[in-house]
Amino acid sequence: MSRDAAWVTERLEVGGSEIHCRRSTGGDGAPIVHIHGFAISGTYLMPTARLLAERWVNVVPDLPGYGRSPRRTHVLSIPALAEALLGILDALAIDRAVLVGNSMGCPIALEVAHEAPQRVQSLVLVSPAGGIHNRPLPRALGQLALDGLRETPRMLPVAVPDYVGFGPVNGLRLFGELTRFPSLERLVHTPVPSLVVLGGRDPLMPKAARVFQVARMAPEMLRVARIDRAAHALNFSHPEELAALVEGWLDDGLESRRALPPGVRLLRRADPAG
Predict the structure, then answer these.
(1) What is the total count of domains within the chain?
(2) Is 170 in contact with 75 (CB distance < 8 Å)?
């Protein structure tokens, strides 16, 4: 075990696989578990996790086959990754957690919430990719390329080594599965309180009006917010804004009149344009 300030790095045994995991050592309440996107490790989630670690325990794993977790002979499906995440919670003796997913991490978080809602206090779904907006696959690949141009250049040294290590064939196979996953539609039946956070410049996400079309069919416990100048990986590019939203969500469900950072907007159900 190595120690970095208020964080520890651990190796967990989950379902016969070794899992690289970062965990903060202070805080109260339900731990916040951050779930990374496809073909990339949890490293890019750390800017937001570090800010939230001032109040809560934060856990940032590399799922099986990703990042510093050993590579696998085959790519795990989204349901299998959800089972692995439940195994991580068990290994860390976490009975109930807040799940913060980005991109593919959102379908994984939704799978966990539907499979074991008693293990999830609430969801924060950041850029929940998947579904008809990302189909067919060539369209999604074009969206992904456009997003690469919109992300901060600081993301390159973080993301490129992970993508290269994961491999293009594995990445294409898993990305295809992600595009077929109906993330927005699954929100209609979310069994736990859920906050959706969109980036205003994210080409992988549909227009906010489409999100609201789905949200209006969902329970009242679903809220939607937007960070206007963010693209897809806003956990890395806009950590202060995202951490402020998560903090307000966990404190009172964003019901208070506390000021949000500039460029952050809580979208109301009565707002047809989003």
Answers:
(1) 1
(2) yes
